[in-house]
Q: What sequence folds into this?
């Protein structure tokens, strides 16, 4: 049986890499990091859209009886333009995404204000809702109301799941992406 043998000559690649200046090499590294960050961004958006009933760039809410639709990025990628060669991927730029990522506790309203009761020098609002506590203060009856239950959001951890799923794809092929970007820039210089 004959052996299949492959040889790789890296002299040409080493020449391309040595011809790049420091600023060009930083640009190549930054571009490689951005490509890798886009892999995480796409996976996070896919998991959010499948787990939460939202569209990619649209989130809607009600304000004053009107439905307001906002176009905002769900996942944001930011790179530091200074000396640091780092890229940050986060979802905290969208205020609604953090509630689905980390979850919320039980939420309830305070109830609608129906009147005001004087209690010494203080004024206490009377509200609608279930009576949770009532007591007498002199000849007056003070009533505390419990608001309406609005539920709780369970933590989805979509960003964390996307990180775990794509960690190998991002870091495993980083040297291949870096080599591709070096070849692209070297071909542009020719």
A:
């Amino acid at each position: 049986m004959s052996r299949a043998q492959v040889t790789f000559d890296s002299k040409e690649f080493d020449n391309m890499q040595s011809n790049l200046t420091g600023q060009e090499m930083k640009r190549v590294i930054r571009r490689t990091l951005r490509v890798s960050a886009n892999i995480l961004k796409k996976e996070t958006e896919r998991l959010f859209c499948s787990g939460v009933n939202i569209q990619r760039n649209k989130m809607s809410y009600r304000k004053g009886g009107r439905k307001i639709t906002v176009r905002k990025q769900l996942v944001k990628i930011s790179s530091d333009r200074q000396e640091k060669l780092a890229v940050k991927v986060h979802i905290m730029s969208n205020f609604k995404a953090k509630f689905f990522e980390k979850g919320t506790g039980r939420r309830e309203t305070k109830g609608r204000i129906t009147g005001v009761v004087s209690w010494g020098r203080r004024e206490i609002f009377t509200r609608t809702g279930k009576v949770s506590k009532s007591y007498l203060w002199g000849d007056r009856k003070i009533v505390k109301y419990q608001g309406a239950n609005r539920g709780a959001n369970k933590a989805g951890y979509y960003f964390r799941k996307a990180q775990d799923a794509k960690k190998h794809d991002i870091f495993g092929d980083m040297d291949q992406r870096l080599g591709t970007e070096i070849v692209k820039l070297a071909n542009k210089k020719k």
